[in-house]
Write a structure and sequence with these properties.
Blueprint: H1 5-35, E1 42-46, H2 53-59, E2 64-65, E3 74-82, E4 88-96, E5 104-111, H3 117-136, E6 170-183, E7 186-200, E8 204-220, E9 226-243, E10 248-259, E11 264-277, E12 287-302, E13 312-328, E14 331-342, E15 349-362, E16 365-376, H4 389-394, E17 403-413
Parallel strand pairs: 1-2, 1-3
Antiparallel strand pairs: 3-4, 4-5, 6-7, 7-8, 8-9, 9-10, 10-11, 11-12, 12-13, 13-14, 14-15, 15-16, 16-17
Length: about 425
């Protein structure tokens, strides 16, 4: 029986791929046996948004940077949080693998808010160098490692009293943005800004903020008619929290808000709450599982009469929040589930779920899931007259709905060379099409 030429070519291709795979596997095995402890340490830097990876590879050329944890000798997990003065605190967790499986370490470093991006990336990179010393010292060639120390000028260093803080830990921030775009038949303007004041100490956390926005859209249709649409909103918000130990805290929130989108001329809210974290708050950069209960009341004054024939009203409600956040060597998980209901009418309620997963399934393959799902039965503010077609298209008015959602999912798979050492910035970082 004569085999078609197509299948004969396919069989040759299959055999060639098998032979190539065996050759690559064989060369990898030989490399692992021959190089062993003589090669540089392989580092996997697990730093999602906090690091400048190209800068780190340039500044630390004495290790092999690899792109997968499965190929590493040392896995460094970098997490971050804001400090009292709105600085960034970086926690570098060193996880030894292979021959270093019994070695682990944690280094914490702080970059003040006033630091430039260049200074901040240097702070993280220098902390990374310090943490790698104990691993490099256990490999042949460690005699080439040199350590220097820059003594602080005008002080004895450890034990020096902190300078007096004339701001008493208060940190203020202002922000203003504006956007303008248009063409011959349309134009849009958006202006927004905010002012905030924060004070954070081990015992107390306080935050006060003011924000506002204004939006305008102008259209000219083919027949010469014009349509203009406007929207605005503002909010004054306050938060005060008292620490009650390594797991407990209590506090209250209050706010005054207005929004044309939600038919609200004024909404004043006050709500005390209590929170329990199953893990100590000191571990918050790596893991936290918080349970929070709040009870409060909101006074509403509407722009237009609502579908419940109200122009103003005061309603009490309570809510329960469960929030899990963890960042581990295998990936990260963030899930928040909140339920809220009116005290005098439990049928008016909502349930919201915010999940985000970023999981390393196995070498080179990662799964990413994210989204938002909400079941709504408490839209007290809906205007009785409804929304015009233009307001619907431009999303100037909230519409009646029993649910809202958006979902996203993705897979990424990387294969090829395990090394990630080389930096080449020519023509930027994208294809440029």
């Amino acid at each position: 029986m004569r085999i078609p030429s197509f299948f004969r070519g396919w069989n040759r291709l299959t055999v060639a791929l098998v032979v190539m795979s065996l050759a690559l596997a064989s060369s990898s095995t030989v490399y692992a046996q021959d190089a062993g402890a003589q090669r540089p340490i392989r580092l996997f830097l697990d730093c999602q948004y906090e690091c400048d990876m190209e800068f780190t590879r340039t500044e630390i050329p004495w290790v092999d940077h690899v792109r997968d944890r499965a190929d590493a000798d040392v896995h460094v997990l970098v997490t971050t949080r804001s400090t009292a003065a709105n600085a960034r605190e970086f926690t570098l967790t060193f996880i030894g693998l292979r021959e270093f499986s019994t070695l682990a370490d944690t280094i914490v470093t702080v970059s003040p808010e006033s630091d430039s991006q260049d200074r901040r990336r240097r702070v993280v990179t220098e902390a990374l160098k310090r943490g790698l010393v104990r691993y490099v010292a256990r490999r042949p060639g460690s005699e080439r490692l040199t350590i220097t120390y820059a003594a602080p000028s005008g002080t004895s260093g450890a034990g020096a009293a902190p300078a007096r803080d004339r701001w008493n830990l208060w940190v203020f921030r202002t922000r203003a943005n504006s956007y303008l775009n248009g063409e011959e038949s349309s134009r849009s303007i958006n202006v927004n800004g905010s002012v905030s004041a924060n004070r954070i100490s081990p015992a107390w956390k306080a935050n006060v903020s003011l924000d506002g926005n204004y939006g305008e859209n102008n259209f000219t249709f083919q027949d010469g008619t014009k349509f203009n649409s406007y929207s605005h909103g503002y909010g004054i918000r306050e938060l005060l929290v008292k620490s009650l130990g390594p797991h407990w805290s209590a506090g209250q929130r209050s706010s005054i808000t207005a929004s044309t989108y939600q038919n609200t001329d004024l909404a004043f809210r006050f709500a005390p709450a209590v929170e329990y974290n199953i893990f100590p708050y000191s571990e918050s950069t790596r893991r936290q599982l918080r349970l929070q209960y709040a009870i409060g009341a909101t006074h509403y004054r509407y722009e237009d009469t609502t579908i419940f024939d109200k122009i103003r009203e005061t309603r009490g409600d309570h809510s329960v929040l469960a929030s899990l956040d963890t960042r581990q060597p295998w990936g990260s998980v963030s899930i928040a589930l909140e339920g809220r209901a009116l005290l005098d009418d439990p049928k008016k309620n909502r349930l919201e779920l915010n999940p985000e997963f970023d999981i390393r399934l196995f070498r080179g393959l990662s799964l990413n899931l994210f989204g938002y799902v909400s079941l709504l039965r408490d839209q007290l503010y809906l205007a009785k007259g409804g929304a015009t077609d233009e307001e619907v298209l431009l999303r100037r008015r909230q519409l009646a709905t029993s649910y809202q959602y958006f979902l996203g999912a993705g897979l990424s798979y990387t294969f090829g060379s395990i090394y990630n050492n080389v930096v080449n910035p020519r023509f930027g970082n994208s294809a440029g099409y």
